[in-house]
Design a protein that fits this description.
Shape: elongated
Order of helices and strands: HEEHHHHH
Helix content: 55-70%
Radius of gyration: 17 Å
Largest sheet: 2 strands, antiparallel
Number of helices: 6
Structural class: mainly alpha
Number of domains: 2
Strand content: 5-15%
Number of strands: 2
């Protein structure tokens, strides 16, 4: 995340405004962004997006990595995980007030309930 933080700070130092917009990084004024800086932003896009989304939602810095995990949960990357993994993820997400984290938490709860029902 330090690369992403450095990139965002560099952009802001140049007078650029960055924000997350539907999975994309919006930059104004875009004409002031050098090709090298654009490449750096692209290279760290997931981390920069997480950072920008977390800032917009006023999340604590230690919550930022959970945004990526929540997206992984939403795409089903942990569906084959064992019970303890799913419960651990649920515990990690429980206090993060971000829409993606809340949706991921609900998905994990449904998955755990389904497994519990299947084991009866």
């Amino acid at each position: 995340m330090s690369d992403a933080r450095a990139i965002v700070q560099r952009c802001r130092g140049l007078g650029l405004r960055l924000w997350a917009d539907n999975g994309q990084i919006a930059i104004k004024p875009a004409r002031l962004t050098s090709p090298g800086l654009l490449e750096e932003i692209r290279r760290c896009k997931p981390q920069v997006l997480d950072l920008l989304e977390a800032e917009a939602a006023n999340l604590a810095p230690d919550c930022i990595p959970w945004l990526h995990v929540a997206r992984q949960i939403m795409t089903g990357e942990f569906d084959a995980g064992d019970h303890s993994l799913l419960v651990s993820l649920l515990i990690g997400l429980r206090s993060i007030p971000h829409p993606t984290c809340i949706s991921a938490k609900a998905r994990l709860e449904a998955l755990l309930a389904k497994r519990k029902g299947a084991s009866k």
